[in-house]
Amino acid sequence: MSIQTKTLAIIIFSFILLTISLSLTLLKISTESYVQLEQSNVKDHLQRVINIIQFEQNNLRQFTGDWAIWDDSYKFINDQNSAYIKSNLTTETYTENNIAFIAYINRAGKIIYGKSYNNETEQLTDLPANLLPYLKPGEKLLQPTEAFEATCSLISIAEGNFIVASYPILTSNSQGPSPGVLLMAKRIDQAFASNISEVIKLEIETFTINDKLLPEHKNILHKLTDENRYITDVLNEQIITGYTYLNSSDNKPSILLKLYVDRQIYLQGKETRQYMIWSIILVAGTLTAVLIFLIRTLILGRLSNLSTQVNKIQQSKDLDQRLDQSSDDEIGRLAANINNMLEAIQHVNHNLEIEKITSEKANKAKTEFLSRMNHELRTPLSAILGFSEVLEAEFKHTDSDGIKADIKKIRDAGKLLLSLINQLLDLSAIEQGKHTLDITHVNIGESIRNILSLLKPIADEKGVSIVDTTKQYDSIFVIADHNALNQVIINLINNAIKFNKENGNVSIGYRNTDKNQVVIDIKDTGIGIPEDSFDKIFEPFARLKNTKNIEGNGIGLAITKSLVELMGGRITVSSEPGKGCCFSFTLPADNVKAA
User: pTM of whole model > 0.85?
Assistant: First the structure.
C-alpha cells in the first residue's frame, strides 16, 4: 500500500470517526436538552391547569360571597320564606352557573335549604348523603362565621369530587352578626375537565384517588410527592402525558389529573437533530474533500512525482539526471538532498572506476609477475634442488659432516622457496576466482587418518603426540573437494605441530550439528594466539611477534580460510595464550551418503 493510499485512508477514517463522535455527542446533548424542554413544557401546562382550577375556586368564592352578602339571603336564613327560593334557587341558577349544590346552614348547624342538581335527570335533588358529615357543627366548611371569612376547599366523596365555597351570610352592608353560612359547590368531573381542555387546547382526564384506581395510576401516584408535584410519562412517539394531584380539605391527595400533550418539541428536536447531523456530515465531507485535495496537491502529488523521477533515474541508470527542487520546503530540500546524493554517487562511481582500472592493472601486473616468477624462479630452483640431490649422493659416503649439512640446508631452502611459490600461485588463483573445485562425497575420518600417517613422522621428530578420535565416526561423510579438504587439514595439523610445545599433543576430532553440518576440531597445546589477533592471522603474510623464529611464510591460513569458504564452510579459532588453541571449520554434511 502506497503512502498516498495510507494517508488518504487515515484522513477519511479520522473524519468519519470525528463525524460519528461529534454526531453522537450532539445527539446526546440535544436529546437531553429537548427532553428537559419537553418535560418543562408539560409541567407548565399542568401548572396552567392548576391555575385554572384555582381561578375557578376564586370565581366560586366570589360568586358565593355575592349571594351571601345580601339582605335577601340574610332575611331568608332567618325566616325561610319560600318567595326567596322561588325567585332565586331555581334550576336555571344551577345550570347557568354550573353549580353542583347549594346549602344554607344556620349557626346551629341546621340545613335551612339544601339542594343538588342531578345532571342526568336535570332535576334538583337532596344533598349527597356522604356530604352531610362535612356539614356538622365544628367542621371546616361551617366555621368561623364570626370572622366573616370565606373558605374554599376540595372534598372527595362517593358521589364525586367537588370544589366547595363557604361564605358567612351577612347584610348587603357586610354587617352581622352572621346567622349562618352559604355553601356553593362545583363538580370536578369530566365535563369540568373538558371545559379546561377547551381553554388550554389539551386533553385532560381526572381520576378519583380511591381503591378503584388503576394499577398504572397507583404507580404514578407513588412517584408524586410534595417536592415533586409534576411527573411526565412518554406514551408514544406522538404523545407525552403529565400527572399531578389535587389535595382535599384534609390535605390528602384526592384527584389525579392526567394531561395529554402533543410531542411537538420532541418531534421538532428530532427533525432539528437530523438537520444538524446531515449538516455535520456535509461539512465534514466537504472539509475532507478539500483537505484531501490540498494534501494531494501540495504534498502527496509532489512526493509521487519525486518517486517517479527517482524510479526513472533508477531504471535509466543515468546519474546525470536531477530532480526538480523549485520549492523551498521539506520536499524541495529532500529533492536537493537526493540530487546531492546523486552527485556523491557519481563521484564515488568515478573513484571506483579509477580504483577498478588501477586494480585491474595491479591484478594484471601481479598475474604477469607470478607467471614470470613461476617461469624465472621455478626453472633455476628445480636445477638447484636437482644438483643438491646429486651433491648429497656424491658426499653420502664421505666423512665431511659440514659439507653434508650445507648441502641439506641448500635442499631445504629450495624446497621452502618452491612451497612458497606454489602457495602464492594458489592464493592468486583463489583471489581471481580461477581455482576450481571438484565437489564430491568425502569420508572425513578416512581422509584425516591418511593425513595423520603422513604427518606422524614430523610430529615424532618434534616430540608431539597426536590423538585421533575419529575412528568411531567412520560413517560420516561431507560434501567437499577431496584435494582442497586434504590441504586444509594438512595446513592446520602442520601448524598445530609446528607451533606446539615440546612433549605437547595435537587432538583431531569432528562432530555432527543440528544444522546438517560437520565440525572438524584441531586442538593443540602450543603457544596460543592472543584474542585481538584472531582475524589478523587469516590475512596473507601475517605473522605473530612470538612466531618469528618458527619457519613459515604466513600464507597457509589465508589459503585455508579461502578453501573452506569455497566449499561452503566457515573457520573459527579459540585460544588461550600459553595453553594452546583450537581451529574449527565446518563443511556441509552428506546425509544421503552417510545413510
Answer: no
